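Subgroup meeting minutes
Present: P.N., E.W., G.H.
Scribe: E.W.

1. P.N. recapped why we're keeping a running log of single-chain structure predictions: easier to compare across weeks, and new members can see raw inputs and outputs side by side.
2. G.H. added today's entry (193 aa).
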Amino acid sequence: TRVSYTNDSETHTLTPRWTIGDRIFGIDDNGIRFDFTITEVLPDGTALFDTCGYRPDDASTLHAIYFPGHSSDDLDDEDMLTVDLSAQDCTLDPSSPVLMLSSASVDAGQVHFNFVHNCSIIGLEEISVSANANITEAMLGGVTRSGTVRIADGKAVFTPDNKTGMISAKGINIACDKSGKPTSPIYFPVFPT
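Output recorded in log:
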């Protein structure tokens, strides 16, 4: 599974890709926290990672989280992670706040994660502003922007908050053409409700 994205503007297909330095973290079923860093990406998109000294027992289950800019240090005393999408940069670079989860068992010293996205990505393209302007702020309202990740029933589970709010991107710089159309889509990862 891959995480940073490229956008094919003809078909609007988002193709996710891992990058070296991406970090996954989590907790095993023995309560031991871990942080792994991607060290190599194979041509087929498979990512290999450094276990940073952590050696899980065979047959143990690892519950992994991908949420850029965070680590196992961000898990609270109950091993829960609070996630919030309210501040974004409207791009799909590797630091975009997308949440992916996976649980996998160790077999013969190896673990193979298959991450599942817990976000949807909204791309705004057909908007209109002043000709040749730059968009420096974008907001999207009425969306679920936060929740928690916890381990339940042997897997990592995301629970959205039961409230909606505004997602805001400030300090962005998206150019618009002479007709007032952005030269690239404005992206918002959001949580499903």
